[in-house]
UniProtKB/TrEMBL annotation:
The lineage of its organism: Bacteria, Bacillati, Actinomycetota, Actinomycetes, Mycobacteriales. Residues 636-772 form the Hemerythrin-like domain. Keywords: ATP-binding, Cell membrane, Membrane, Metal-binding, Nucleotide-binding, Translocase, Transmembrane, Transmembrane helix. The chain crosses the membrane at residues 22-40, 47-66, 78-106, 243-262, 268-289. It is found in: Cell membrane. Residues 127-226 form the P-type ATPase A domain. It comes from the Bacteria. Belongs to the cation transport ATPase (P-type) (TC 3.A.3) family. Type IB subfamily. It is a multi-pass membrane protein. SUPFAM superfamilies: Calcium ATPase, transduction domain A (SSF81653), Calcium ATPase, transmembrane domain M (SSF81665), HAD-like (SSF56784). This is Heavy metal translocating P-type ATPase. PANTHER family: CADMIUM/ZINC-TRANSPORTING ATPASE HMA2-RELATED, CADMIUM_ZINC-TRANSPORTING ATPASE HMA4-RELATED. CDD domains: Hr-like. Pfam families: E1-E2_ATPase, Hemerythrin, Hydrolase.
């Protein structure tokens, strides 16, 4: 990737913007005017018009050749210059005018793609603070950032960016470090802990002991990394320039031999006319621009034809985790209550207390309660302490929600929550009611529904190495890597580590990097092709990338890859076919069967043919497209929404199992009855409806009923386990209580059914519901 010309020389970009259409208009006008003059037998006027058009074309063509030579390349533009000059020397003026139009139109198309290239890194600079609050004694003064030196005591207010690297001197600092790590969860830094510049104070104000100047701090380094990585990437070489290595000497040799053998300079000019590489200068850009246009309709902004071409033959994909493979937003996964507690009531109280808090976890808890349709009460006497949580009075009860240090004699259920949170990579929000520990809410950054399906599509599209680089902890990163079948997982990566990792991958293969945060901008710039999840990602990552996904859907990356490969294939096909026809025409011209004007017209015919072929890139690959009838798509929406509701109730199975495991058989008996009601009144009717309505409807677009056969078999197993538990319930009801002899089998049924349903939901969502992804609820994960 290269820094754009718009940043390097805005005046040059402005000149090109108005010069290219003028060039095309002048050459086309000269050609048409000459034709009109010929119709009125004004041959001298016609020749004058065509000569003017040819001369106008020579000037930029000579500049292209000079510019290529300055960059150490000899392109096929030299053939165009020689053919233009040759037509003037031998008096084939109409041929020169035709070539001028071909060159102007080719340049205009090529420039249309190049103008999309903008890699502005302004957002990185805009995020950086320009001043700092320095405390001297009891006074706080605002000073320019450059005046801060190591040893200064700085005050960082709520919502402000930490200006330099340092150590926390206050009791607590609550920070949003997503700008550096990409992690959406806020972190707590206590006295003596290190803080890096660029992070945001997410809680109250705190004091910082500076340990570096702004120039030597972390965030300034990120800006430099992004610029250096952008500058080191070589510009993409056009297909025409690669062909020039053999086509240019071949054309000159054939033209020279034709002149030498026949003694006719006209034959040499005719050879050069038909050798003018318009199939390359026109067809290839048309195919590439068509691919760009098609991608934009799908919410994929590809900023240059070079990026599309590179994406088309990439073999390695490097991804960030947060916001790319995961939703980037915390979401509730489960509610655990003290024995005898009501999970729904615990969530309602917690969400009611959290309604006025701006904390990201509070927002997730409130959102979870709203999605479950719980009526929230207005809290009073709200007190929020940074890093601890919220305390409020809700319906006459004092409720606290947030972090909590458990005592050594904490109840077993609470210790189990901590263990489970560590295994799941979850954050725990503890809930107390009137001073008693009532429950815990577990929140995670969920995996995207379409992640696994998209990665499978990307592998099918030609990527053979998938790597994840993340600033997150190793355990959750490796779990995601295992679930998705990644080839490499690198956790706890700093922005510099990410850049080095991308560079190492790029040295081995054409590499695509996908990310969505400011911390990803340097890595995006270092990759062959940088892709930003731009719908809600940072501006810096979007502007540092070659490709921006404007919708919050990872599957659009697979669409972009397929479009890129198809567009590149059509571009190469058009160029090869066009150049082959040109080679044949060169042979006829060398033997005198094609005068220059006829050769130019023939070349135009070749151009039209290859351009029409190139325009196929505007259409999708019909063999890959899956057409869903409207009623089938509506069904996918409906069943996807039902999954959202059903997933919330799956905790009934686990809660019942925990009661059995703890030996509280009376409570377990009651919970088993609630579970039975859920299974037979809600879950099984949903599964039967899928079998009888959804799966038959999917058989046609998927090509066979076998595509859903394994899902139907899983439905049968779900039904079997549900009926087995109903038998246990009937026996317990008849006996008046659950028997200890029933516990082992019931536990196996409950845990087995819980795992089976989670897997089943994931499979259906990945394989079927993502066919209509707009029905998806952002942030869901099964």
């Amino acid at each position: 990737m290269a820094v754009t010309s718009a940043l390097e020389a805005p005046w040059r970009e402005r000149v090109r913007t108005w010069a290219e259409p003028i060039f095309l208009a002048v050459t086309l006008t000269a050609l048409v005017a000459g034709i009109v003059a010929t119709l009125f037998d004004a041959d001298d006027v016609a020749d004058a018009c065509w000569i003017a058009g040819t001369v106008v074309a020579i000037l930029p063509a000579v500049w292209w050749v000079i510019d290529a030579l300055r960059r150490g390349r000899v392109g096929v533009d030299l053939i165009a210059v020689l053919s233009l000059v040759g037509t003037l020397l031998v008096g084939e003026y109409v041929a020169g005018a035709l070539i001028g139009v071909m060159l102007a139109s080719g340049q205009a198309l090529d420039a249309a793609a190049e103008r999309r290239a903008t890699k502005d890194l302004r957002a990185l600079l805009e995020h950086a603070p320009h001043a700092a609050r320095r405390r001297v004694g009891d006074e706080v003064e605002v000073v320019p950032l450059g005046d801060v030196v190591p040893g200064d005591t700085l005050v960082v207010g709520p919502g402000e960016v930490v200006p330099v690297d340092g150590w926390v001197t206050s009791e607590l600092a609550v920070l949003d470090e997503s700008v550096l790590t990409g992690e959406p969860m806020h972190v707590q830094r206590r006295t003596g802990e290190a803080v890096r510049s660029g992070v945001v104070a997410a809680g109250g104000a705190f004091e910082l002991h500076a340990r570096a100047t702004a120039e030597d701090s972390t965030y300034a380094g990120i800006v430099r990394l992004a610029r250096e990585a952008a500058a080191e990437s070589a510009p993409v070489v056009r297909i025409a320039d690669r062909v020039a290595a053999w086509f240019l000497p071949l054309s000159l040799t054939v033209a020279g031999l034709a002149w030498l053998i026949s003694g006719s300079a006209t034959r040499a000019v005719a050879v050069l006319v038909v050798a003018t590489p318009c199939p390359l200068l026109l067809a290839a850009p048309v195919a590439i621009v068509s691919g760009l246009s098609r991608a934009s309709r799908l919410g994929v902004v590809i900023r240059s034809g070079g990026a599309l071409e590179n994406l088309g033959h990439a073999t390695t994909l490097v991804m960030d985790k947060t916001g790319t493979l995961t939703s980037g937003r915390p979401a509730g996964t489960d509610i655990v209550t003290a024995p005898g507690g009501d999970g729904t009531e615990v969530l309602r109280l917690a969400a009611s207390a959290d309604q006025l808090s701006p904390h990201v976890l509070a927002e997730a808890i409130v959102q979870e309660a709203k999605m479950r349709g719980l009526p929230l009460s207005l809290p009073t006497d709200v007190a929020e302490q940074a890093g601890t949580g919220v305390a409020a009075t809700v319906d006459g009860r004092r409720v606290t929600v947030g972090s909590l240090v458990l005592p050594d004699d904490a109840p077993g259920w609470a210790r189990a929550v901590l263990s489970r949170a560590a295994l799941d990579g979850a954050v725990v929000a503890w809930v107390t009611v009137d001073g008693d520990l009532a429950g815990a809410l577990l929140l995670v950054d969920p995996l995207r529904r379409d992640a696994a399906r998209t990665l499978r599509r990307l592998r099918a599209a030609g990527l053979d190495r998938l790597v994840m680089l993340t600033g997150d902890r190793r355990e959750p990163a490796e779990e995601i890597g295992s679930v998705l079948g990644l080839d490499g997982v690198y956790a706890e990566q700093t922005p510099a580590d990410k850049v080095n990792g991308v560079r190492a991958e790029r040295e081995a293969a054409v590499t695509v990097m996908v990310g969505d945060g400011v911390n990803d901008a340097p890595a995006l710039a270092a990759a062959t092709v940088g892709v930003a999840m731009g719908a809600r990602g940072s501006t810096a990552s979007s502007e540092a990338a070659d490709i921006v996904l404007t919708t919050d859907r990872l599957d659009r990356l697979a669409d972009a890859m397929e479009i890129a490969r198809r567009s590149r294939r059509i571009a190469v096909q058009s160029a090869v076919v066009g150049m082959s026809l040109s080679l044949v025409a060169m042979g006829f011209a060398a033997f005198g069967y094609l005068p220059p004007a006829v050769g130019a017209l023939l070349q135009e015919g070749i151009d039209v043919a290859v351009i029409l072929n190139a325009l196929r890139a505007l259409r999708g690959d019909r063999d890959r497209e899956l057409a869903l009838p409207d009623d089938t798509e509506a069904m996918l929406h409906r069943f996807s929404a039902e999954h959202d509701v059903l997933r919330d109730d799956l905790s009934l199975l686990r809660d019942t199992a925990q009661l059995l495991a703890s030996g509280d058989l009376p409570a377990a008996h009651t919970a088993l009855r609630r579970t039975d009601t859920f299974l037979f009144d809600t879950l099984l009717p949903h599964e039967r409806a899928e079998d009888t309505e959804l799966y038959p409807a999917l058989a046609v677009p998927l090509g066979s009923g076998e595509a859903t056969a394994t899902m139907s078999r899983m439905h049968a197993e779900i039904d079997r386990l549900s009926r087995r538990m109903r038998t246990h319930l009937a026996q317990a009801d008849a006996a008046g209580a659950l028997s200890p002899d029933q516990c082992d089998d019931l536990l196996a049924c409950l845990y087995g059914l819980h795992a089976l349903l989670r897997l089943h939901f994931v499979q259906e969502e990945e394989n079927y519901f993502t066919l209509a992804p707009e029905a998806e609820r952002p942030g869901d994960s099964a």
